[in-house]
Every structure is written in structure tokens, then in C-alpha cells.
Amino acid sequence: MIKKKIFMAGAGGMLGEAFYETFKNEYEVFCTDKDVNSDWLNYLDFNDLDKYRDAVLKFNPDYLFHLGAITDLEFSERNADLTFKTNTISVEQACRISNELDIPILYISTAGIFDGSIPLYNDYETPNPMGIYAKTKFYGEKHVLKNSNKSIVCRAGWMMGGGPKKDKKFINKICKQIEKGQNELYIVNDKMGTPTYTYDFARNTKLILENNKYGLYNLVCGGLTSRLEVVKELVSILNRNNSIEIKEVDSNYFIDEYFAPRPPNERLVNYKLDLMNLNIMRDWKICLKEYIEKDFTHLKL
Fold this sequence. Notes:
Layout: E1 5-9, H1 14-23, E2 28-33, E3 41-43, H2 49-59, E4 63-66, H3 73-78, H4 80-101, E5 105-110, H5 132-147, E6 151-156, E7 158-160, H6 163-166, H7 170-179, E8 184-188, E9 192-193, E10 195-197, H8 198-210, E11 215-218, E12 225-226, H9 227-237, E13 245-249, H10 271-275, H11 284-295
Parallel strand pairs: 1-2, 1-4, 2-3, 4-5, 5-6, 6-11, 7-10, 8-13
Antiparallel strand pairs: 9-12
């Protein structure tokens, strides 16, 4: 049986690794990134729009996964032009390419496109992005949904996965502090959200794709939580409740380091997937435990 082909652009990060592992056995995958940090990656800067198109057309895939983005909020505020080019302009090109080949496109959006003014966001709530990162991701989402012939747009929450080498997000930042021997962790108590484990995200995306259910989906782990609760659970998994003190602070404590606007609440619910019986995302506590025991066992007491 001939395998279907997937071109993955911007696959060098934590999410790309999960997608590669999830799809590699059943599909012929061609993974690219400008940071070639694994032997299964090929060099491509998708901001070079002509080379992006040439590479995809040469591979002639059945699906185009546009995975990469600038996700550092402070970097985005300081580098608005590059962020728009990376997070929006390249997405418009990906949409053109997928339409030219008449193939489905997968685009990754974010819970960060909401302003946090209501307690919980289903798939149909109206976004109101606050900062450069959120705006560029929302513009990409809106363009794909409006202009693509066939698209799957999945909104992720607080991403976790990739381990010490590829995780640039909250979990690894906390684990780095613990690894350095810090016995006091200052954690904000005013940020609510929903974690998303990269491997669950990739598996659920595969289920959506293979059922040909194109459209927009919230795609987060089960359970509503906060930054504070996530760290408490992390410390407990590492058996460090007696050696680490968690100190609650509000976001102003980190305002110099994390100055980009962030919504107070990014809690999503997978409403559409639940209604369609396609939600296989597990509870965030189960996923966090699996992630820590897979990639951070060296920190356990």
C-alpha cells in the first residue's frame, strides 16, 4: 500500500517532534526547519516564500502541516516585523501552496488569541488578541479559515513536551530552576489556562485528519487549571514537596522580564470535539506525569 505524504514545515520544535513520532510509521513525512537539530529534519526557512513553495511542490504531498512560529511573546513585541512575517505572511504562503496542490493544510493556533475576559472559551467564542504574538497568530488563523479549500486549525493551550532540549515553555523553565538547586519557586497566582501535551495534541490531530473533519477546533488537555496549580502538581510528581517552597506572587512580580501583554485567563474547552465524539485528549495531570517521567526523571527524589 502506498503511504500518503505529509510535508511538515517548522518541525524542529517540541510540537514538530511529537508530530513526526506520531505520523512517521503510517505516512511518508518530509520534515523541515531552519534549525536542523535532528537527523530527520531538512533545512528550510519558510520565510523564504519561493523556496518554501519549491520544496513543497517538489515533494508533492497529500497534506501540508504548517507547524512553526515565533512563540516568545517578549521577542515578538521587540521584533514585530519578523513576527508578522513568520507567524502570518508565511501562513498566507502555506495557504496558497495547499490550494495550488488542492491538499488540506494544518495550522496551529493558540489560546492566547483571547483576552481572558470570560471564564471559559469554547470553539465559537470571539477572539480579541492583546499583543503582537497573539495578533499574528489570530491573523494566520483567520486567513486559513477564510481562504483555504481544506483546512484543520487547532488551538493549543499551554504547550508541554519536547524535553530539556526542545521545551522552551513553562514546564522546562521551572525544571531548570529545580535542576539548579533552587528551593524557592516564585509562581504567579493570577494566570489561568489549560495545558496541552504535544503527543496528545498530535494524536488527536491525526484522528481529526483521518476522519476528514476539516474546520476549527480547540485542542487542549482535560481539566482547568492555573500556573500555580501546575507547579504544585509538578513538585509533587518530583517528590520534592518537602524540599521546595512555592511562593505565590502576582504577574507584576515578573513585569520587567515578562512585559508582553498576556490574558489573565486562557482556559479552553474542546466543545466541538466532545460533540463529535473525537476528543481523545487526556487530563493534564496524567499528561504532566507522563511527560515528567519520560523526560525529567533525573529530577525526581
